[in-house]
Amino acid sequence: MTVTALIVAAGSGTRMGGDVPKQFRRIGGKTVLAHAFDALASHPRVTSVRVIVAPDQLELAREALAGRDCGELIVGGADRADSVRAGLDAVAEGIVLVHDAARPFCPPEVVDRLLDALRQGDGAVPVLPLADTLARGRGRLDAMVERSGMLRVQTPQAFHAEDLRYAMDEAGGAAATDESSVMVAAGLKVLTVEGDPSLEKLTTDADWRRAEALQAAQMI
Ligand code: C5P
């Protein structure tokens, strides 16, 4: 069965500052998008990698991926679900690994764990436990949230293309922060595998500094 990685890179992603979206900023001379691409493309069980980009970022993406076998770039949409849908439309069947471009490092063992777990479920996602106390509130604590059993869900996320298509149809375009959310909402069985700290999404300046340090230490 084919395994197609879909890297969603169509976000504007400038929250951390800088004049280009975070997926086109560089870590150790290589763009974040190229790091994510190379991590998946080099995996022996990944058949191909397709990249979804915003219409006004096609040129940036072509430059970032120069020399790589990425096929036609796919044009994404206004929100994440539109971008994933565009990627899914380009994939006829098989397994898809949906991955955020904003997560430059993906250890190969995580992909192995996901593909192995997918044999028993409709989907598989990497997760990490929470270390901090959890609460609701703004400015003051309104309520504490029981932490046990809570998980942080990362990407890549593995699904059978037809299951994800079904779940996204059921969601009817409702906003979701990831695809496991729509799979669970559709009543499908999404299994968890051990995630990895290096898979953290680049969101804050501190994330960025951590990613640069990881790369400089050749830990990825
Ligand atoms: O903004 P956030 O960090 O949650 O985005 C997660 C991933 O989804 C990023 O890799 C971003 O490029 C992608 N995305 C997308 N299309 C959008 C919005 C986000 O491909 N319209």
UniProtKB/TrEMBL annotation:
Pathway: Isoprenoid biosynthesis; isopentenyl diphosphate biosynthesis via DXP pathway; isopentenyl diphosphate from 1-deoxy-D-xylulose 5-phosphate: step 2/6; Isoprenoid biosynthesis; isopentenyl diphosphate biosynthesis via DXP pathway; isopentenyl diphosphate from 1-deoxy-D-xylulose 5-phosphate: step 4/6. The record marks R147, K201 as: Positions MEP for the nucleophilic attack. GO terms for molecular function: 2-C-methyl-D-erythritol 2,4-cyclodiphosphate synthase activity; 2-C-methyl-D-erythritol 4-phosphate cytidylyltransferase activity; metal ion binding. The keyword Lyase applies. Residues 1-220 are annotated as: 2-C-methyl-D-erythritol 4-phosphate cytidylyltransferase. Its EC number is 2.7.7.60, 4.6.1.12. GO terms for biological process: isopentenyl diphosphate biosynthetic process, methylerythritol 4-phosphate pathway; terpenoid biosynthetic process. The record marks R15, K22 as: Transition state stabilizer. The keyword Transferase applies. It catalyses: 4-CDP-2-C-methyl-D-erythritol 2-phosphate = 2-C-methyl-D-erythritol 2,4-cyclic diphosphate + CMP; 2-C-methyl-D-erythritol 4-phosphate + CTP + H(+) = 4-CDP-2-C-methyl-D-erythritol + diphosphate. Bifunctional enzyme that catalyzes the formation of 4-diphosphocytidyl-2-C-methyl-D-erythritol from CTP and 2-C-methyl-D-erythritol 4-phosphate (MEP) (IspD), and catalyzes the conversion of 4-diphosphocytidyl-2-C-methyl-D-erythritol 2-phosphate (CDP-ME2P) to 2-C-methyl-D-erythritol 2,4-cyclodiphosphate (ME-CPP) with a corresponding release of cytidine 5-monophosphate (CMP) (IspF). Belongs to the IspD/TarI cytidylyltransferase family. IspD subfamily. Belongs to the IspF family. This is Bifunctional enzyme IspD/IspF. The lineage of its organism: Bacteria, Pseudomonadati, Pseudomonadota, Alphaproteobacteria, Sphingomonadales. The chain holds residues 1 to 220 of 380 of the full protein.
